[in-house]
Design goal:
single chain; alpha+beta; four-stranded antiparallel sheet; 4 helices; 41% helix; 19% strand
């Protein structure tokens, strides 16, 4: 058994590029969004609240990103009862709402993105556009 593992990390330059792509795609949809990019541990690298995006969506977008990083999977699939309990236990740090995706390169978790203020489908669409812009694995 090895005493270490190799990892990848989303850089601030990559996070800013993804953020820019998310803003551009949200603009094309005419849906102002809140976007968070976090590292693999869930710490914020970059975020934005677009003009007109819902204030409370800042909190849900951050929770979506942190949840996606924590579970290394898209958000929105856990049963609502579990999501509610996890949200309470984590003081809002975990959510079952759709719109969070892991950021992976070569299958390795590098961070996550959380998008909020549109419908779940719109949030995922903006997140996927951001991942495509930085060459991350498709989710």
């Amino acid at each position: 058994m090895s005493n270490f593992k190799e990892s990848v990390t989303l850089t601030h330059a990559g996070a800013l590029m993804a953020l820019s792509a998310a803003i551009e795609h949200a603009g094309k949809l005419n849906v102002p969004q809140c976007v968070f990019l976090v590292d693999g541990s869930g710490e914020t690298i970059a975020s934005v609240r677009m003009d007109g995006a819902k204030y409370l969506s800042m909190h849900t977008a951050r929770s979506k990103a942190r949840t996606a990083a924590s579970i290394n999977a898209p958000t929105g699939a856990m049963p609502a009862e579990f999501g509610l309990a996890a949200g309470i236990a984590s003081q809002g740090g975990v959510t079952h709402l759709p719109g969070g995706l892991p950021v992976r390169f070569g299958g390795k978790l590098a961070g996550a993105i959380g998008v909020g203020s549109g419908t779940g489908d719109q949030d995922f669409e903006v997140a996927r556009a951001a991942l495509a812009a930085i060459g991350a694995d498709e989710v």
